[in-house]
Design a protein that fits this description.
The chain is α/β, with parallel strands linked by helices. The protein has helices spanning 15-21, 58-72, 89-98, 139-147, 149-152, 206-218, 222-232, 273-284, 296-331, and strands spanning 2-6, 29-33, 46-50, 77-80, 106-107, 120-124, 157-161, 172-180, 183-192, 236-244, 247-254. It has 3 domains: 2-86 and 271-331, no CATH class; 105-161, Dna Ligase, domain 1 (2-Layer Sandwich); 172-254, ATP-grasp fold, B domain (D-amino Acid Aminotransferase, Chain A, domain 1, 2-Layer Sandwich), CATH 3.30.470. It starts with a strand and ends with a helix.
Length: 332
């Protein structure tokens, strides 16, 4: 059994795979909230995947680490990631910069010095970055941004030197690949004319589609990426990176990445099934992943969470379909 330990508000990352593409995975996969993680003491065989460590308080991290130590004494359990030993975003960026792996640096606000290379942007070490942050061109602009109320609301702000240049076709690229235990697979390349690259197919050219397909088929950076995961002490997650002069530049490793965002609709522009298969097959290949050893309390909480997610994604699917129909009607 795979016990996926996650923050209660972010248990959705496997929903599309579980509900639509690989329903067989439901037999071997259990969502476990951190509040319920103590129930794992009663499990004798399976895989425990720790995620969302960046979203936990110091006290929650300590409790999870103590529990991980207890579970380590159960020989039938394999654990991927560690609540405190796995590096979070800031520490990983510092390690990769110090060993020459990255060209850019990250700073805590109280560690800023005269060597900072501008432009920079501010982000929270906690969670994902969904909207493009403003680029700050000098120290006065940075100080002003840090002093604003929205800057002070960040849980753990970090200042990051902007990196990356557009490729000859004018597009920036962000590559993404997964590690699941001993396996890695390439998931996608996001491309944009903006330096802040998010997943979007709206701007892609036919040549880009061929490039993405080749990347997924060849997984060309697998060996280098495994080294990055090892430095991060992470056995599960998605690494986001780009290439600078042919060399890997790593942005982050997400410990709880969304495998597939959208439920299937008749209007999908690509087939997500291969991604779902890569991910599900890698999970099922983990040691003791198919051992049917769980607890009724874990199973009940998982079923409740999955039922809630089903309602959420059925509504999202309906919304996507209606949006597409209305757009077609408006264009006719």
């Amino acid at each position: 059994m795979i016990f996926y330990v996650t923050h209660r508000k972010h248990a959705y990352t496997h929903a599309v795979v579980l509900l639509y593409h690989r329903t067989d995975l439901q037999a071997s996969f259990r969502l476990v909230r951190y509040e319920d993680a103590g129930l794992l003491r009663g499990v004798r065989a399976g895989v425990v995947i720790w995620s969302d460590m960046d979203r936990l308080s110091a006290e929650e991290l300590k409790r999870a680490a103590d529990l991980s130590a207890e579970l380590a004494r159960q020989t039938g359990l394999t654990q991927l990631n560690h609540p405190t030993a796995s590096l979070q975003r800031f520490d990983l960026l510092r390690v990769l910069r110090d060993d020459g792996g990255n060209y850019f640096r990250a700073f805590r606000p109280d560690q800023l010095n005269d060597t900072v290379r501008y432009p920079v942007f501010i982000r929270d070490e906690v969670g994902a970055l969904y909207e493009e942050p403003p680029l700050l061109r000098d120290r006065p602009a940075l100080d002003a941004a840090l002093a604003r109320p929205d800057g002070r609301r960040l849980a753990r702000p970090i200042v990051v030197e902007m990196t990356g240049t557009p490729w000859p076709d004018g597009y920036y690229r962000k590559f993404a690949a997964y590690r699941v235990g001993d396996k890695t697979y390439a998931q996608h390349i996001a491309m944009s004319k903006s330096w802040f690259v998010k997943n979007s197919n709206q701007e892609l050219l036919p040549a880009h589609v061929d490039e993405i397909r080749a990347y997924i088929a060849e997984n060309p950076h697998a060996g280098q990426l495994m080294q990055v995961f090892e430095k991060a002490r992470m056995q599960y997650g998605r690494v986001d990176y780009t290439l600078t002069d042919g060399k890997l530049t790593v942005f982050e490793i997400n410990s709880n990445p969304t495998v597939l965002s959208d439920p299937p609709t008749p209007f999908a522009t690509y087939d997500p099934q291969p991604f779902a298969d890569l991910h599900a097959d890698a999970l099922l290949a983990l040691p003791q992943a198919t051992a049917q050893d769980s607890l009724p309390e874990i199973d009940a909480a998982h079923r409740a969470a999955l039922a809630k997610l089903r309602r959420r994604y059925e509504f999202k699917r309906l919304k996507l379909v209606l949006q597409k129909i209305f757009r077609r009607g408006g264009a006719s």
